[in-house]
């Protein structure tokens, strides 16, 4: 972890965990792959680590019991909270550059971002979809958003 800490990027990711979401492991694995500064789990502390494929040993994971705890941390860290959800009024992520320093927050599978999380977001972005499904998996959405950040700010990985 110490080696990775020397190269971590300046974005964080957060996911709400009010219903014991199974996508958290995938979010943690994606955060490790894209070298996020930290993963924030908002809500329940317990999550299914199988999807992380042991990457949680190499990724900083912080728990916030409530959205207020999380938003207080983000304010202290001077990081804007950017919501990724296909809500009415969300701007297409494909048309913007994500901020260099930010927290990307994802809602749960099904309900998406809670009302409290939406209210805490400085901006809301959606990921373009063209098929018949209402939404893509939160773990998949996290990978797309992190890749968008990397394309804008990190460039190609070292050899």
TrEMBL record:
Keyword annotations of the record: Methyltransferase, Transferase
Claim: Methyltransferase is one of the keywords in the record: yes
GO molecular function: RNA binding; RNA methyltransferase activity
Pfam family for this entry, one: SpoU_methylase
Keyword Iron: no
SUPFAM superfamilies to which the protein is assigned, alphabetical: alpha/beta knot (SSF75217)
GO biological process, one term: RNA processing
Domain tRNA/rRNA methyltransferase SpoU type: 11-147
Protein name: tRNA/rRNA methyltransferase SpoU type domain-containing protein
Species per Swiss-Prot/TrEMBL record: Winogradskya consettensis
């Amino acid at each position: 972890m110490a080696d990775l800490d020397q190269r971590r990027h300046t974005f964080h990711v957060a996911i709400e965990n009010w219903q014991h979401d199974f996508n958290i492991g995938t979010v943690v694995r994606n955060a490790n792959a894209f070298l996020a500064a930290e993963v924030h789990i908002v809500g329940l502390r317990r999550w299914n680590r199988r999807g992380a494929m042991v990457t949680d040993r190499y990724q900083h994971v912080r728990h916030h019991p409530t959205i207020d705890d999380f938003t207080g941390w983000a304010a202290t860290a001077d990081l804007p909270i950017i919501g990724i959800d296909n809500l009415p009024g969300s701007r297409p992520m494909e048309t913007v550059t994500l901020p260099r320093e930010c927290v990307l927050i994802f809602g749960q599978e099904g309900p998406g971002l809670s009302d409290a999380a939406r209210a805490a977001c400085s901006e809301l972005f959606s990921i373009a979809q063209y098929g018949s499904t209402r939404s893509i998996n939160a773990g998949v959405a996290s990978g797309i958003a992190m890749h968008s950040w990397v394309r804008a700010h990190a460039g190609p990985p070292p050899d």
